[in-house]
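Protein modeling request. Please complete all fields; requests missing the sequence field cannot be processed.
Requester role: graduate student
Desired output: 3D structure, C-alpha cell encoding
Chains: 1
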Amino acid sequence: MLAFPPSESLIGTTLGNYYLEQLVGRNELGPVFLGSTDEGSTYLVRFILAPCALDPQERAAYQERFLQVAGEVAALQHRHILPLVDYGSYLGGSYLVTPNLPMQTLISALTKSGPPSLSTIGDYLEQIAQGLEYAHEQGIIHRNLSTDCIFLLRDGRLAIGDFGVMHLLELATPAGQSYPDYGSGEGRAPEQLREGSCGPCTDVYALGAVLYRLLTTHAVFRDSSREGVYAQHLHAPVTSLQRWRSDLPEALDEIIRQAMEKEPARRFQRPSELVAAYRQAVGWHAGAAERLEESASSSLETAVREQAAEEAAPASSAAEAGRERASLWHHLLRRLRVAWRRRSSSSTG
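Delivered output (349 residues):
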C-alpha cells in the first residue's frame, strides 16, 4: 500500500468541496467518509488506495489513467447507475464521491427478505440490463457486478454502483503482478481470472451470477477459500437451481448456464438477451400452471354435472357407483387445484 495517514486523522479535513465529517466504513480499497458541502448536502467520499507500492513513474501514469477513467464514469447519466459526482487525489490516494442516498445493497435486501417473486426478479433484471447496456454503449465495462454493488433505492428502483472501480485497481497493479481481490468475486468471469480482455460478455457472466443469487439467495459457487471459488469459475459447471428450489422452471437452469459459459462467445451477447430468455421461461411456466388449473376446473365441473344427472335418475347400484366416482373426482380435483395454486403462488409471488 502507499503511505497513507490513519483514517481517523482525516476526519475534519476538507477535500475540495467536501468536509469529512465522520468515518463510516472501510473495505479492501480504503476508508469511506461521510462528507458534507456548504449547502448542507451529504455525500460518500470513498478512497481507493493502490494495492501495492508504485514507483514515481508508475504513480504518475496511474494518476493520469485514474483521471481519464473516473471522468468517463462521471459522464454516465442513467437512472439505473449510481452517479459519480466528483473525484480527485489526496496524499497519494484517489477518491470517488457519490450521493449519500437512503438505499441498501441487493444482497442485504435478499438476506432480510428472501428471494423476490419471479415477476419482481424480471423487473430487477430489466433495470440492471438497461444500466449495463447504456454503459457498454459508452465503452465502459463494469468488471465486478454483484449483489454487493447493486443498490435498492427507497423508491424501489435499482442503481448499479462501482463502475470503473475494478478497472482502476487493475491499472494500479504493475505488470507481472496478480490483480487484487475486491468484492465478493461471485461473478468473476474466467477471462478476468486469466487476466484476459474484458467486454460486454464479462458483465453478462456476472449478471448470470446475480440472477442465481436472486432466485436462491445463494452464490453459484461456494468454497472455504476465494481461490476455491475462482477455480470453480474456471472449471466447474454451474450448480443446478433445483438444489435450492424445486419449484423453479427447469428452463432457468439452462439460461444461467448459457449466461455463465466459460467461453465468452457462447454466452448471451447482451444483457437484454438474458432478460428476454428469462421472461420467456417464466411466462411459459406461469401459463402452463394456469392451463392446468383451467383443465382441473373443467374436469371438476364435468364431474359435478355427471353426479347431478345420476342423482336425478332412479336409484340403482349403478347410480350409486356413479355418485361415488363423482365424489372421488370432486375430492381429487379440488386437491389438485389447491396444490397448483399454491405452487403458482410460490413461484410467482
